[in-house]
Amino acid sequence: MIAKRFSHFLAIDWSGAKGRRQKGIALALADGAGGPPLLVERGRGWGREDVLALLRDDLPSDTLVGMDLGIALPFADCGAYFPGLADSPPDAPALWARIDAVCADDPHLEAGSFVSHPAFAAFFRDGADTGAQFHCDGAEHGRGRFRVTERAQARMGCKPYSNFNLVGAAQVGKSSLTGMRMLNRLRGHLPVWPIDPLPDTGSVAVEIYTSLAAREAGRSAARAKMRSFADLNRALVSLGSPTVVGEGAIDDHSSDALLTAAWLRMVADDARRWNPADLTPSIARTEGWTFGAL
Q1: What was the pLDDT predicted at 169?
Q2: pLDDT given for residue 157 in this prediction
């Protein structure tokens, strides 16, 4: 039963940057009872380990958590995350555990040891090199391997990039790998849909893509980022949400989180979002899915 399943909606704009704290992390919370979404502030700013602690220990009950990161790597296109590797992980939880183990000595949930590891480096594209296995045979584009959900995003007018990409403004690899370290440490505390079944009660995390929320608020892919309160509030009104207080400029991490928290509140009771046509049990367990990609 999806209707009225959640009481709170937390959107997390994530970051794969180095350091104890990341300027790119922003959290926003929307109350199911109504009202404008609110930024969740934390002193000098958020770090990945701070977010982990909140999700593990201080999350409001029955919260739908949206995380702007890839919860797995491509699998279906090549039949494995790392084709040719004898002990390539068989599913997403095993992938998370492998990344976290390889990066055990990396501080602040960083993932540099994984992308430089001799067994895995050839699958990634970084600023100096494109790994020999960055593309799967028969790749249709130059952006690297895609999950099935990223192909669904592209059909909806978004411009996804591969989670194996580590370079450029469109890189999502570092944020996803650091996020998978966090997900490994949340096992037993917070289920992650669709890798875990949607429980009847309690909180659950999903992958989000903030551009999907922006598009449903009437903004094009090229205008998905909102850097003024005026633009953000127009988008919130389009989603049926009360506006936030403020004027002038706002950073796009905060605006992404605020808009997506309101979007999660709007769409969480839509059963279609939980049952996309291309989501098979195998894909759910290996690649996961982006909530809202149909």
Answers
A1: 63
A2: 86
